Amino acid sequence: MLAIDHFWLPRRVRLLSLMLASLALFTVSLAFLRPAHGQAPPGLTELLDRTTVLVLSYNRETLSTDIGSGVFITPDTVLTNRHVVATMDPTLIRVTNRAIGRLVPATILAQSTDQDQAGSDFALLKLSQPAPSAVAIQITEQVDRLTPVIAAGYPGVVTSLGFHPHLLMWGNLGQIPELVVSSGEVNAVQPGRAVRSVIHTAQISRGSSGGPLVDRCGRMVGINTTVYTGQAQGATVDRAQAALHAEAIKAFLDKHGVRPRLAQGACQGTVERVPPSPRVALASWPRPTPLTQSLDTASYLTARQRTEIQRGVANLSQAHGSWAVAIPPVGGGDGTMFAINTRSAEDAERIALERCEFWASAPCQITIRDGAVLPTSVGRPMAVMAPTSTTFDPNMIPFISGPDREMWGVSYQRLTQPKAMVLHPQGIAIRAVGATAAEASSRAMSVCRAIRAQSDPALCFVYAVDNRSVVGRINRSSVLSGALTPPTANNLPARPATPAPAPAPAARPAVQAPTAPPAPRPAPPTPAQTSSPPATSLPPSGGDR
After folding, report:
1. How far apart (Å, rounded) are the C-alpha atoms in residues 69 and 81?
2. Can you give the pLDDT at residue 276?
3. Distance CA 343, CA 232 (A)
4. What is the mean pLDDT of residues 494-521?
5. Is 128 exposed, middle or buried (0-12, 13-18, 19+ CB in 10 A)?
6. Which residue, among 414, 359, 377, 375, has the nearest Cα to 392 in the 3D structure?
7. Residues 179, 155: contact at Cβ < 8 Å?
8. How does DSSP classify residue 370?
9. Angle at the Cα of 282 from the Cα atoms of 281 and 286, rounded to 5 degrees
10. I need a labelling partner for 207 at 20 to 30 A (CA). Which of 166, 258, 326, 375 fits?
11. Is residue 509 over pLDDT 60?
């Protein structure tokens, strides 16, 4: 390294070198004082953890769980998008986050209507009681191009990694996901049709809809709503995220008599300090108990049944709660039926037996319950598989979990319009309403066959019409032959000779992403296939739903 004593240089050169050195030192100091790119100012993520919530509910038609995001305007009022709650069962909406630590029931207080400004997409949820950990977000209209922003929410593309919203609806609080945040900057503030949109680069996707877009002070400048994508030759070549401007948010809240917290002045880089929230222990269901004995102790198992069970047990690592395996009686076939992700051993046993009895057309037996290999036992017929009463009873719906019966089945019972319920033995349950019971039945059957288009769509069957249920033995043979007595002999759609093709999916303002359907018989099902919550939906962000 060559060192030069600057005092030997001319005076002007020495002054110039000192000025340049001072400028360099000042620039470096600023770099240390400013937060690094993408690094949140102190306290910002803690604030967003308290202001942003996960919104979830059963879908109004399918036994699946829709999710979206929302933000506290007051401790008992949450703002979200109208399209987030549009497909949700309004009687079963729940709100949560890790600070709350439980599921809080909520109802729709107000939502945008066709008479509102074009592009308005808002909904207000009223909690059954204020959340003690909630922090009402501040709102500001001060946003311009190149303003640094942060998007907060629960995008399904991230939360779906190990997240089962159905288990959360059942009370497994360990499934409450961590809030997802992403940083970017504002590209433009577009006028839109009537409501201004903030176009930004902070990444959002399925499930982000309804979540806040905030500046670096944690003040909401918009609510994430839409993802615009451009395509060329089938590939996505352009993408833009949009949030509805705070101006429209304030107008909507004012219309419905809700007074938000309004921020004053420009952002100075300081985040509102919030008192620490008490740590909430999230009670999670335990992992499944592994096999405690060798399958060799069950001498009644065939070689194929042992292979199927071993293959299924190997896939239990992502499951929760209790599990069971049922097999047909001797001579009734080699198939096995798993039931996992259940709240109790009794629930797992019942579901496994019901699915097995449907396929075998005979009473089955439990061979494994929560890891314990059982000695051979006499199979027992399931009462729900041969109903004798035509009165609809949620506690008699086969193939679905106890919590689903308690919530979704009871919600169906309370519907006052002409209605129908269609089932599939893989845990698919569809309900629909219509001008007539026949219309509702036809609609529910079409949805079921579309979901199961690649695997046994012909096994969809009408289980209930209005508050009347089927009579007769429910099994594969009776469904395929048409021998199962429908709830009413009139008005029901005739079963086609060949299953109807799946309809093209309709465009929606946000993404619905069903989980992969179970593998068709006779291939042995894995635990994840036979008992994962069916057709889990992830409401979006806007154009991504």
Report:
1. 8
2. 76
3. 47
4. 37
5. exposed
6. 414
7. no
8. T
9. 120
10. 258
11. no
Q: Rounded CA gap, 267 and 273, in Å?
A: 14
The count of other CB atoms within 10 Å of the CB of residue 372 is 14
Q: What is the largest CA-CA distance in the chain?
A: 109
Written as six digits, the tokens of 234 are 């089938």
User: Regarding beta strands 65-74 and 104-111, do their DSSP bridges make them parallel or antiparallel, or are they unpaired?
Assistant: unpaired
CA–CA separation, 225 vs 211, rounded Å?
8
Determine contact, residues 364/329, Cβ cutoff 8 Å.
yes
Residue 335 has which token pair? Answer: 């198939």
**46: buried, middle or exposed (CB in 10 Å: 19+, 13-18, 0-12)?**
middle
pLDDT tens digits along 417-441: 999 999 999 999 999 999 999 999 9
Could you give the CA distance from residue 536 to residue 57 in angstroms, rounded to a whole number? 11
Residue-level length of the chain: 545
Name the β-bridge partners of 79: 71, 124
- Write the pLDDT tens digit of every residue in 81-137: 999 999 999 999 999 999 999 999 999 999 998 777 767 899 999 999 999 999 999
Residue 156: helix, strand or coil by DSSP? helix
Task: Report the SS3 class of residue 527.
Answer: helix
How far apart, in whole angstroms, are the C-alpha atoms of residue 243 and residue 541?
A: 10
Q: How many CB atoms lie within 10 A of CB 514?
A: 14
Q: How far apart are the first and last CA of the chain?
A: 61
Burial zone of 448 (CB within 10 Å; 0-12 exposed, 13-18 middle, 19+ buried): buried
CA pair distance 75, 462, nearest whole angstrom: 43
Name the one residue in this structure whose structure tokens are 């994962």.
Answer: 532
Q: Are strands 461-465 and 468-469 parallel, antiparallel or unpaired?
A: antiparallel
- Residue type, position 493, single letter: P
Convert the pLDDT of each residue in 57-66 to its tens digit. Answer: 999 999 999 9
CA gap 502, 454 in Å, rounded: 9
In angstroms, the Cα distances linking 247 to 68, 150, 257, 471, 489 are 22, 18, 16, 57, 56
Residue 286 per-residue DSSP state = P
C-alpha to C-alpha distance for 426 and 405, rounded to whole angstroms: 15
Strand partners, 428: 424
Average pLDDT over the chain reads 81
Is this model's pTM higher than 0.85 or not? no
DSSP 21-45: HHHHHHHHHHHHHSPPTTPPPTTHH
With a CB cutoff of 8 Å and minimum separation 6, the contacts of 515 are 532, 533, 534, 535, 536
- Respond yes or no on whether the N-terminal peptide bond of residue 522 is cis (omega within 30° of 0): yes
* Region at 180 (left for phi over 0; alpha for psi -120 to 50; beta for the rest): beta
CA distance 206 to 212: 14
DSSP assignment of 372-436 equals EEPPP------GGGS----B--GGG-TTS-HHHIIIIIHHHHH--SSEEEEEETTTEEEEEE-SS
- Backbone φ and ψ of 18, nearest 5°: -65, -40
DSSP bridge pairs for 223: 212, 244
